[in-house]
């Protein structure tokens, strides 16, 4: 019998679960054990969005998780306003459904406030931020603007204010979405913003629930600790939220003794289940949603994946764990995919990686005259 199932059936709380147990649970929640036939909109909802500082990684994230995914499927949902780009968890840009935009944004306002005070607090100390937000809303709803343009317009109203700080204050106080063509595959353009209310034609949710948000997180990332939930969201003091939910949750402990919470009905596959190679794009939430990343990556690899300037490199999973990084470039009408391995692999794993890499090349460079795949050793 599956050990997870045995724990559940015999009602044994706080039983120890292994790193590999947690890995397989994560892969199952993240649609990475087998590509899902879930519709794109439903997948984005299930994943509670995709990290989206750069425009293209969410497309790769969906390609690696869904059967027969094509770029136009996501692009059209953005153009139709069913999916938007907005700063949410950790005050970073995420691609989320329009429903999650209006539901999650009010819950995550404290994250925006904390980031603003840390970066620009002194430069904004003498400004009326409510008045600034009101002026920013009027400007952005009259015409979508870049932050540079918004800062200049606000500086006309507050000549002694710093343009960048005022634009960021508006970003914090207002739910700003990035409008197309930003985020549309095959296009380019600056990030231009308007309010979510103006873009979607509806207000933010007034009765959003932190409990519901935590349950959504567990469905996509659990089992997880309170610190994991806080790292994912950027919020603090979630312990009291989890304690209210405790009677309806299962509890486990990881190999370090940390208490983990989970949904009773969530998938927890057997640790022996094989996992195919998967290519994750830059900034994938798999690497950003835990205080302890051991379930997916050895700690000593962090410096190879997380750069000093804040980039989270695109990674390769082999048997469920980070085993390398990868990059793609178009050179003289050729699509070139380069994988840098962190350690050697047996021939059968290398063959599986190459097969998956060729599928990715077809997705990234369907019209290239030629496609090349290279493996390097770090």
Structure, briefly:
It contains 16 helices and 13 strands. With 378 residues, the protein is an alpha+beta fold. The protein has a domain at 297-377.
Would you write up a description of this structure?
This protein has 378 residues and is an alpha+beta fold. It has a domain of 81 residues. Helix content is 42%, strand content 16%. It contains 16 helices and 13 strands. The strands form 3 sheets. The chain has a 5-stranded antiparallel beta sheet. A hairpin with a 2-residue loop joins strand 11 and strand 12. Helix 7 packs antiparallel against helix 10, helix 8 crosses helix 10 and helix 9 crosses helix 10. The radius of gyration is 22 Å and the shape is globular. It starts with a helix and ends with a strand.
Low-confidence stretches: none
Task: Estimate the strand proportion.
Answer: 15-25%
| C-alpha end-to-end distance | 40 Å
SS elements, strand count: 13
Q: Going across the biggest sheet, name each strand in turn.
A: 2-4-3-5-6
The major beta sheet can be summarized as: 5 strands, antiparallel
Order of helices and strands: HEHHEHHEEHHHHHEEHHHHEEEHEEEHE
Number of helices: 16
Class from secondary-structure proportions: alpha+beta
Form type: globular
What is Rg?
A: 22 Å
Mean pLDDT: 94
The portion of residues assigned to helices is 40-55%
Kindly list the characteristics that best describe this protein.
378 residues; alpha+beta; 5-stranded antiparallel beta sheet; 16 helices; globular
């Amino acid at each position: 019998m599956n050990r997870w199932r045995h724990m559940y059936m015999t009602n044994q709380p706080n039983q120890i679960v292994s790193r590999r147990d947690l890995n397989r649970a994560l892969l199952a929640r993240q649609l990475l054990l087998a590509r899902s036939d879930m519709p794109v909109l439903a997948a984005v909802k299930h994943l509670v969005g995709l990290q989206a500082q750069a425009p293209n990684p969410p497309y790769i994230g969906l390609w690696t998780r869904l059967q027969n995914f094509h770029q136009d499927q996501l692009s059209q949902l953005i153009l139709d306003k069913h999916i938007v780009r907005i700063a949410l968890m950790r005050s970073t840009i995420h691609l989320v459904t329009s429903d999650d935009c209006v539901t999650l944004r009010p819950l995550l306002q404290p994250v925006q406030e904390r980031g603003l005070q840390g970066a620009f607090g002194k430069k904004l100390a003498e400004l009326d931020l409510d008045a600034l937000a009101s002026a920013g809303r009027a400007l952005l709803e009259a015409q979508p603007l870049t932050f540079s343009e918004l800062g200049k317009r606000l500086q006309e109203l507050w000549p002694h204010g710093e343009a960048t700080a005022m634009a960021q204050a508006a970003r914090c106080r207002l739910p700003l979405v990035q409008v197309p063509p930003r985020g549309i595959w095959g296009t380019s353009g600056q990030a231009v913003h308007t309010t979510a209310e103006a873009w979607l034609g509806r207000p933010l949710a007034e009765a959003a629930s932190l409990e519901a948000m935590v349950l959504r997180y567990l469905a996509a990332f659990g089992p997880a600790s309170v610190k994991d939930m806080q790292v994912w969201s950027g919020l603090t003091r979630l312990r009291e939220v989890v304690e209210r939910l405790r009677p309806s949750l299962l509890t486990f402990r990881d190999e370090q003794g940390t208490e983990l919470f989970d949904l009773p009905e969530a998938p927890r596959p057997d640790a022996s289940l094989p996992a195919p190679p998967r290519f994750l794009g830059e900034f994938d939430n798999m690497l950003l949603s835990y205080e302890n990343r051991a379930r997916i990556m050895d700690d000593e690899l962090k410096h190879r994946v997380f750069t000093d300037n804040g980039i989270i490199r695109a990674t390769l999973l082999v048997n469920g764990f980070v085993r390398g990084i990868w990059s793609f470039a178009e050179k003289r009408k050729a699509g070139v995919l380069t994988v840098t391995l962190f350690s050697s692999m047996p021939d059968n794993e290398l063959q599986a990686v190459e097969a998956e890499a060729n599928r990715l090349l077809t997705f990234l460079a369907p019209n290239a005259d030629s496609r090349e795949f290279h493996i390097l050793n770090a």
